[in-house]
Every structure is written in structure tokens, then in C-alpha cells.
Design a protein that fits this description.
The complex is a heterodimer of chains A (167) and B (259). Chain A is of the alpha/beta class. Chain A contains three helices and seven strands; from the N terminus they run αββαβαββββ. Helix content of chain B is 65%, strand content 0%. Chain B is globular. Classes of the chains: A alpha/beta (167), B mainly alpha (259). Chains A and B meet through loops of A and helix 2 and helix 6 of B. Chain A: It comes from Pokkaliibacter plantistimulans.
């Protein structure tokens, strides 16, 4: 419980709590590591959590909001307001270094390069195989198991893998 | 922001937002019709995912339209409880899927329009329009990259794929001019800096389309050919009624249904 004495818990403690809430699609990474919790604020006794969606049509958006709400409620916070913020738009650059390591360990290649370099219309990024580390990889499909991923294959170890698209 | 709009401008913006939201909704519905029918599983997943992105963007546009019109409706009610004549989508989005080349020709022309329009809307003087455009542009850039690749791959492929791609382009071409026709109230929005003028947009679109088709060894149809218009006035082709009948069946048969 964050709140036993009726006092407002420190925002740092709430950030730590939210760092334990997993992304529903990629449960090894938390919603904080994914970069979708943008801000925490107190408005008097009400906690305002500002979230930004990864993709406009991400079906997990509501599940994420519900999971965050539940985690805060279970920690004893009752007055919670979730707000959606579109601008500035989420980018894969906001996935933390720890989050990238966890993705790789889970078998998902983290985004390569920086979204700000407009790699979208340019040449193919260099994607490392999360299993053997090889750079000899090729794209099977530009869309994978979820909207945020593409499907790749390692030409050395022959394993297919998901690649977290760089946007 | 919205407080600064006078009522004429506000109504014009609602109409424009419906145009964007409806075009995304109908395009999304068409793409998702491929699920279970696509030539390869990867392409099926890709089309469903593009459709999902467009559905998310449609929700953003329609939510903002609902907020501005202030009649107690939400995005779902706008999508599911308006009839054909109230829909403001581009005619190209409602055209049937046809074969895979037909779908990719339609998608390519739509994506190229969408990309250049959203790029311009990133500079909109309306903060919410700008925010939705900036979010959507990242996704649409990816869509355009994919449909452009398919145009080149099929156009510069075998004799059969080339012919099918050329036929598809020629067939859908008559629906492309509508993307750059303005309604009587659009000038209000252009003057306010909320949306871009259509003439420069058309030049950007045409430049991109011509360059891509040339690289794909395809012939670009005549830009001055007769064009079908009417979507923004609610005058649709016969295709839309069937699409809406399927899409809207559940919420109309079971009003307020949830699960």
C-alpha cells in the first residue's frame, strides 16, 4: 500500500509502482519502460496520469489504461484520472535502454536506429537477430503479430523473430 | 482553441473532420474484408494492421467532430448511426476490393493522398487537428512505403502482374480527382490555416504518383481525365450502402449492445 496514513504518496513511488505494470502484448516490458506513461501530476487529492498511445489503433490501449487504474487502486489510490495525450506523438525512441534489453532477451529485436532520422521512407534498417546477434537478417513481412512489430528471419541461425518497428 | 472558431468555421471544420474520419473508417472496413481471403498470410496480417491504424485515426477524427458539433453524440454513434447520404468519405475508399492489384492500386493512391495531406495538417493552426495528424503521419508513412513497394513489385514484375497492375490503375483512376476537390466551405478553413489548399497538395501527390509509376514501368493515366466526385456531398456509388449495411448491422439491430 502506498497510502496508509492518508498522505499523498511521492510521485517517485508511483513511478516505481507503474514500472511493475506489464504491457499486455509484451509482458516482459513495463508500461513505463515502453514510454507510454508521459506524466504524473497531483491535482489536489486527485492523481492525473497522462498516457500516450503507441499506435492510433492499438487494441491494447484500453487494457493498458485498465491495468494502470487497477494497480493504482490496489495501492490505495482512489481518485485517479487517466488522460490521453496525442502530442508529441509516441516514438520508439522513448523505449528505455533497460526496456530494449528486455525485449531482446524475450526474442524481440528492439527498434534499430532513431525514429527522428526519418528512416521510414529510406533504406532498410540494420536489424540484429535477438537469438544469435547476426546482422544477416531479412524481412518476411512489414507487419507482424501486432501493429507495432514486423516479421523478420535470421539468415544465419534460420530463426524467425519479431522486430519492434522503428517509428 | 475551439472557442476561437466562429460558428460558420466550426461547422465547416466538423464537415471536414467527418470527411477524414469517414474516409478512414470506410477504407479500414474494406481492408479488413480481406481477412480470410488474402493471397498470403503475411499480406492478410498487413492489410488488417493498416486497417487497424486507420480505424484508430478515424476514432480520433470522429471524436473531435463529435466534440465540436456538441450534440451529445460520440465517435461510435457517428460511425454506426449515420446513413449513406450523411457519410462524407472519398468515393475511392468505398470501391470494392477486386483482385490484389485492384486493392493495392486503390491503397497506393489513397496512401499518397493521406501522406501529403497529413504532412500539411501537421502545420494546422488547430492544435487538435495538428496532434492527430502528427500521430497518424508516422503510421501512414509506413503504409505508403508498403503500397509503393507493391506497385513497383507488380508493375515491374511478370507480364501478367504488370498487366493486372496497369488495369487496376486505369480502373480506379477516375476516383482520384475527388481527393483534391474542395467543398463550398473549405475556403473558410484554408483561410484560417486549419487545412491546406488543395491545389499544391494535388501537385505533390501527382509528382509522387508519376515518379512511382514510372519506376514501376507503368503508364500514368491522363491527369485531366473525367473524375467522379460526390462523396463529400453524400452522393456515393452503390458500393457504400452494402458496406454500411454490414458494418452497422450489430449496433442497429441491438442498440446499445456491449460486451
Amino acid at each position: 500500500m502506498l497510502r496508509e496514513d492518508g498522505q499523498r504518496p511521492a510521485l517517485d513511488a508511483i513511478w516505481q509502482l507503474l514500472d511493475t505494470v506489464p504491457d499486455p502484448e509484451v509482458p516482459v516490458i513495463s508500461v513505463v519502460e515502453l514510454g507510454i506513461v508521459r506524466q504524473l501530476n497531483w491535482q489536489q487529492d486527485r492523481l492525473v496520469v497522462t498516457l500516450t498511445p503507441t499506435y492510433s489503433g492499438c487494441p491494447a490501449t484500453q487494457a493498458i489504461a485498465d491495468a494502470i487504474h487497477m494497480a493504482l487502486w490496489q495501492a490505495g489510490l482512489e481518485q485517479i484520472e487517466l488522460q490521453e495525450q496525442l502530442s508529441p506523438p509516441w516514438t520508439t525512441d522513448w523505449i528505455s535502454p533497460a526496456g530494449r534489453d528486455k525485449l531482446r532477451a524475450y526474442g524481440i529485436a528492439p527498434p534499430a536506429g532513431s525514429a527522428s532520422k526519418r528512416t521510414l521512407l529510406g533504406e532498410e534498417p540494420e536489424v540484429h537477430c535477438p537469438h544469435c546477434g547476426s546482422v544477416h537478417t531479412s524481412v518476411i513481412s512489414e507487419f507482424g503479430s501486432t501493429a507495432c512489430k514486423a516479421l523478420y528471419r535470421c539468415d544465419d541461425c534460420r530463426e524467425p523473430f519479431d522486430y519492434f518497428k522503428c517509428i | 482553441m475551439t472557442a476561437q472558431l466562429n460558428s460558420a468555421c466550426r461547422q465547416a471544420l466538423v464537415d471536414y473532420l467527418l470527411h477524414l474520419g469517414d474516409s478512414d473508417t470506410v477504407m479500414s472496413q474494406r481492408l479488413c474484408e480481406w481477412v480470410g481471403h488474402a493471397p498470403a498470410l503475411e499480406e492478410e496480417v498487413a492489410m488488417a494492421n493498416v486497417g487497424l491504424d486507420l480505424l484508430g485515426q478515424a476514432r480520433s477524427w470522429l471524436s473531435y467532430a463529435a466534440e465540436l458539433e456538441d450534440q451529445g453524440r460520440d465517435a461510435d454513434q457517428l460511425a454506426f448511426l449515420r446513413d449513406e447520404r450523411e457519410y462524407r468519405n472519398l468515393l475511392i475508399t468505398e470501391q470494392a476490393n477486386g483482385n490484389f492489384a485492384d486493392t493495392m492500386a486503390r491503397q497506393f493512391f489513397f496512401d499518397a493522398w493521406h501522406f501529403h495531406l497529413l504532412t500539411a495538417l501537421c502545420q494546422s493552426t488547430d492544435a487538435q487537428v495538428q496532434a492527430i495528424a502528427r500521430k497518424g503521419l508516422k503510421e501512414v508513412t509506413y503504409h505508403l512505403r508498403r503500397s509503393t513497394a507493391w506497385i513497383k513489385r507488380l508493375g515491374d514484375g511478370t507480364a501478367v502482374s504488370h498487366q493486372k497492375m496497369q488495369d487496376a490503375i486505369d480502373d480506379i483512376w477516375t476516383y482520384t480527382g475527388e481527393m483534391f476537390t474542395a467543398t463550398s466551405t473549405d475556403p473558410l478553413l484554408v483561410e484560417a490555416g486549419i487545412v491546406p489548399a488543395s491545389a499544391p497538395l494535388q501537385q505533390q501527390w501527382l509528382g509522387y504518383v508519376q515518379a512511382t509509376l514510372q519506376e514501376a514501368t507503368l503508364t500514368c493515366p491522363d491527369e485531366n481525365a473525367y473524375m467522379q466526385i460526390g462523396g463529400r456531398q453524400g452522393l456515393h456509388t452503390e458500393q457504400l450502402g452494402y458496406l454500411l449495411a454490414e458494418m452497422q448491422f450489430l449496433p442497429r439491430a441491438y442498440p446499445g449492445a456491449t460486451w
